[in-house]
């Protein structure tokens, strides 16, 4: 059984969220293992970025390389560009490969009907787009991977192909940054009760209930007057009393903020296998989250965090209040989350699982 000659990863925007982060982590791990690995983007942002349009992707694939696709702005064009017979792996980071355009269908009644021309979410040509993506999947017969069992089940149902579950992984520290050190570096009172919201787009992040963050915070502040809140991920910075607004920050800075916090508030409406949750676990930061999508595969309720019935904002606020006012509960959940994540969600394990998938496809 031979190793792949090389792996050619492809994603959309160079700085776009989880898909690009996973592609970079895999590329780095594969390069360390002696496998030639490269990464291209459709919208590069630096002078050395390899920007390749979806329809040109096939022409740039190195001979013998595994084509590992993470996301694209045009699935039909990119899939059409891959020559038949080429070893192809697709990681589903959301549902877009088998929908008419939406990353997460939520409760859309048209998903199981195959989408309709008059898409209720206004995606143009949704039914035809979905059919064309399915046609290309049947033509290429790629190996499909999904980070969560939840998404794997959906994809298998709609794409009529097996899907390998490979949970996301991140570099895991030997130990989390101490809360005392993190707060000292950020100038936070050691006795404060600190909560954190974070998402790409912050309060504009629709799938993360960004429009509800301030309301949740206001209710929590009324219950826990000594609480301090950070929001991270938007375009602006500022402060409104004990609500501190951070813009997008570098990953190292976010890790420091997480280490300084007591509780991550994660009222997500839809999720696959969130890197934010993994990054919080790596800093021993427990989360209160809605139990949607793949989130219950990351958080064990009452053991490494708290899961709340999706959309039950009152229960979400009560769970956060209970943790913040119960002394050692946040610390104990955070320590358990760190230990569980170190066993299950490392970048090394993720890279090894993908190598097995490459080998299996070569059989």
TrEMBL record:
<dbReference type="GO" id="GO:0016757">
    <property type="term" value="F:glycosyltransferase activity"/>
</dbReference>
<dbReference type="InterPro" id="IPR050194">
    <property type="entry name" value="Glycosyltransferase_grp1"/>
</dbReference>
<keyword id="KW-0808">Transferase</keyword>
<protein>
    <submittedName>
        <fullName>Glycosyltransferase</fullName>
    </submittedName>
</protein>
<dbReference type="Pfam" id="PF13692">
    <property type="entry name" value="Glyco_trans_1_4"/>
</dbReference>
């Amino acid at each position: 059984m031979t190793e792949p000659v090389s792996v050619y990863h492809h994603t959309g925007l160079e700085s776009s969220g989880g898909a690009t982060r996973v592609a970079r982590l895999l590329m780095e791990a594969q390069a360390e293992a002696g496998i030639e690995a490269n990464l291209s983007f459709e919208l590069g942002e630096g002078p050395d970025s390899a920007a390749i349009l979806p329809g040109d992707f096939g022409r740039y694939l190195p001979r013998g390389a595994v084509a590992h696709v993470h996301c694209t702005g045009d699935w039909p064009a990119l899939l059409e560009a891959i020559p038949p017979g080429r070893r192809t792996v697709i990681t589903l980071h959301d549902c877009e490969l088998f929908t008419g355009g939406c990353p997460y269908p939520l409760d859309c009644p048209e998903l199981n009907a195959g989408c309709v021309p008059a898409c209720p979410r206004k995606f143009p040509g949704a039914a035809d787009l979905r059919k064309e993506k399915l046609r290309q999947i049947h033509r290429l017969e790629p190996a499909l991977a999904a980070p969560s069992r939840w998404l794997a089940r959906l994809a298998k149902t709609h794409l009529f192909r097996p899907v390998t579950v490979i949970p996301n992984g991140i570099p895991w520290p030997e130990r989390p940054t101490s809360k005392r050190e993190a707060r000292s570096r950020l100038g936070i009172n050691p006795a404060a009760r600190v909560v954190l919201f974070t998402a790409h787009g912050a309060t504009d992040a629709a799938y993360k209930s960004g429009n509800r963050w301030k309301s949740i915070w206001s209710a929590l502040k009324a219950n826990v007057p000594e609480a301090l809140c950070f929001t991270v991920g938007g375009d602006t910075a500022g402060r409104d009393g004990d609500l501190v607004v951070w813009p997008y920050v570098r990953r190292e800075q976010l890790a420091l903020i997480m280490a300084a916090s007591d509780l991550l508030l994660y009222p997500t409406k839809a999720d696959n296998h969130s890197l934010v949750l993994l990054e919080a676990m790596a800093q021993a930061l427990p989360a209160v989250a809605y139990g949607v999508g793949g989130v219950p595969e990351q958080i064990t309720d009452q053991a490494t965090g708290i899961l709340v019935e999706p959309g039950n904002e009152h229960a979400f606020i009560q769970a956060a209040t209970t943790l913040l006012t119960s002394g050692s509960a946040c610390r104990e959940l955070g320590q358990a989350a760190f230990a569980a994540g170190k066993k299950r969600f490392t970048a090394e394990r993720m890279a090894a699982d993908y190598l097995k998938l490459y080998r299996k496809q070569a059989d």
